[in-house]
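Render this sequence as a predicted structure.
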Amino acid sequence: MQTLQVILILAVFVAGVALMMTKKLPAILALPVMGILIAAVAGVPFVSADKETQTITNFVITQGAAKLSGTIVVTIFGAIFARVIQKEGISDAIIRKAAELAGDKAIAIALALTAAIAIIFTSMSGAGPVIMVSQIAIPLMLSAGIAPVVAASLVLFGLNIGLLFNVSQYQLYVDTIGMDMDVIKSASLVMGIVCIIVTVAYIFVNVKKGETSHWAMKASDSKVTPVAMIMPIFPVLLVFIFKMDANVALLIAIVLTSLITKPLEAVQVISSSVVEGIKDIAGVIALMMGIGILLNGVAAQATSALMQPVIAAILPSNKFVYIILFTILSPLALYRGPLNMYGLGSGLANIFLQAGALSASAVGMALRSTSVVQCVSDPTNTQNVIVADYAKVDVNDILKSTLPYTMVMALVILVYTAFVLF
């Protein structure tokens, strides 16, 4: 009976992957359905008169939907801050200033704009900011003679670097698998350095040194002050240097940014940013509720008892096997695959942890390494579709151009994890 249950649970996982990869069922619906089905197959009762008994209605659905409440709150603050940055014209000013300072050399423009995009995404995320950045940065790169696929890819590389330092992204790993926040922050610095080096290498390999632009960036007439232009990284500094809670850091940044830029309109800017910011991430909040339901579906005692022996038998206990295995499997984060943290990866990470073969840091960093591959190279990402459209290229060409580099990023991150955090 137990063998049949394990097979059925694996079948649910495979079916979920297939449905999401083929876009037959969106992740926002697939994940909670999978969580409920997995719990049902494992024998978790639907309801029970005993309040101590884990049930599908209470533990999986009710408690699961609220499981990532901490992540949801910090994501909301992050979205509000992103709206403030956008409304005050700060992100636009950063990109234009970077292009202005770079002059008309293609490599200089590529480096400057990628750096500017990275700075912007330390405080922003979502489709709106990607559209805003793309419509400014991609034409600037194309005018400098940079190939369309490379220009689109550099927006994604910059976005990836910025998100590594976006403090609103960290809480997910704390809530799902219990990673230590100090480990997340220190590892983020290492990951950032790795991704910066590989991104610079991508630029020097793919942007021709001799290329120059026939168009020069006009001096910016932006009224955004230098102080305002550093505000996107302000919450990062508060979290990393002053050890401040991410929610508090973002709240301080929201208020200060509004006061610095348009003090007389600060109330209106903040209030409208609250409404618009929450609208921006409504889908993300629903997705996180679905992730929580999946997490509790696989974390239920009945499910864990079935899956732990199977997972423990296949998880690596050797550092070198750990590095090789997750590097080779890193493309499974693509197409909403099983190593996508915003999909099945969150559920698998929980099973990995319960199996006891890997620490929370090792499990979390394995998924963080694959998230780099997913963030830049995944053709099903909204941001990939957006930048491909602006650059007029096939989204799969971006995958081909970036995948070797993102897998190198994953490899180096896994090496660091294996020898420092394993």
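Summary. The chain has 21 helices and no strands. The radius of gyration is 22 Å.
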